[in-house]
Design goal:
This protein is an alpha/beta fold and 274 residues long. It is built from 9 helices and 12 strands. The longest helix is centred in the middle third of the chain and has 15 residues.
Length: 274
Amino acid sequence: MSEESRKILILWSGMVAPRALCRIPRPPLRAHLDQHAELFATAEHLASQFPRTKAIRLDVSSPNDLDISKTQVVTTSYVSEAIRSLDTSAKEAGITVLNEVGVDPGVDHCYAIKKKDEVHAKGGKVLEFHSYCGGLPAPKCADNPLGFKFSWSPREALLSQRNSARFLKDGAVVEISSNEPMSKAEPYDVMDGYDFVAYPNGDSVPFREFYKIPEAQTVIRGSLRYKGNPAYVQALANPGWLEQDKKDWLKEGMSWAEVQQQLLNASAADEKYH
């Protein structure tokens, strides 16, 4: 195999990049990409710790920067409609685009199919299906108000807790808006010593068909967090800290108190008024 064909490009891997680089066999080149200028120095520092590895700047929207039309792809991301629409093109190009190979989605699919097959093999039926997952630290390490440690983008991790949800409950489709998931979190007992809560996340409805359990009346896939996390995230969301739209009043150099004043529509930024 030529050197050129053995190159590996790691795209947008964030804080999980060091672990990924440690586990990749040693091809002639391993490359870490980060297109945000303020993070490029971090990418360069990381690349310097591994042989035959370099950081590169890349604009993935520019056809002049990268041609990956015949490149094998492995990602933990969900199969979106945009990816699904490329199925025929990928097959014609003779490449594999492998999605959903993380813990969730990924390992959870494997266990879901395994358990479903075991039940069906014994002549049983799956009337309710519940699947919850959370990349959580050990209890002794859950030492901040969120009870959570960021192994990927903190922004995206927090915003994921604002996703809308859709699931089957007793045969009916239930929809939850992006403002509601944290208020729907309920205690979920897994084992002694773990104080978990669970809430629905994303669209669970198609999984009745994907997992081939047409008899199921309830299908819920969701996330696990330590008790207190949803309430804390909701407390951040209520005044607008997790809003993504542009704020015309937000100017460089504003203090935290001044930002909070605007969010709360307070009469002054002095803390005695809060």
